[in-house]
Give the backbone structure.
Amino acid sequence: MTESPEQPRHVVLRRRLRTAPAQLRTALTPLPRWWPLPVCVLLGTVSGLSYGLLAAPQYEATSYAMAVAEEDSGPSAALGYAQSYGRLVTSDATLSYAQGAAGEPVRALRSQVRSETSPDSPMIAVTGTSDDADRAADIANAVIEAVIVSSGHVSKDTGVKLIKFTHAMKPDQPVSPSVPLGTAVGAAAGGLLGGLVLLVRPRRAGWSVSAQVPGPASAEEHATTDERELVR
């Protein structure tokens, strides 16, 4: 039906909106069934490439401290207190003490510091993360110093003290993914997403598989065969 100039504008707009889904389906009909896969791969590749080019490189530096038991305490005490002090690395008290030497506020240090302990060794590893290599080392050293000072205040009561084992050094290379790696990861993620889309999308009617049910002629043939076997 043609649209006459005399028709109101809202009637013409409503009619176009009503026919838009049918026109969209007609435009998408020639596309192959597997079109989401290359589209998702392309989007993932572009996203990974953009992240590798635009994201700031991240550096990590790690310093280590060791729990040492005094004469009245045993090795098990040193191991237990190492686990405890490792949990206190990211506490507000420790970060508040370290923020001056680290050059970062407490809010920023919460996301830039992590600690690791071993169940077999009284060792504490403190890792600082920053977009500047020197700052990453400063963060790790400042936090480990804060933990050592805090442990020294109660060493007479606990019988365990922390000593610095290694000093964090300036990292040479960033730990963030490079541009080729980010692009490859993005392409792989896009391919995985595209494959999932192909699996969950509804299939066309021609792709359905129906069970083959024998018709009347087949049933009669089976009955005749059974009668012959009985006669024999």
User: Anything to note?
Assistant: Confidence is low (pLDDT under 50) at residues 207-213, 226-231. The longest strand covers residues 59-69. The beta strands are 59-69, 113-117, 123-130, 160-166. The longest helix spans residues 179-200.
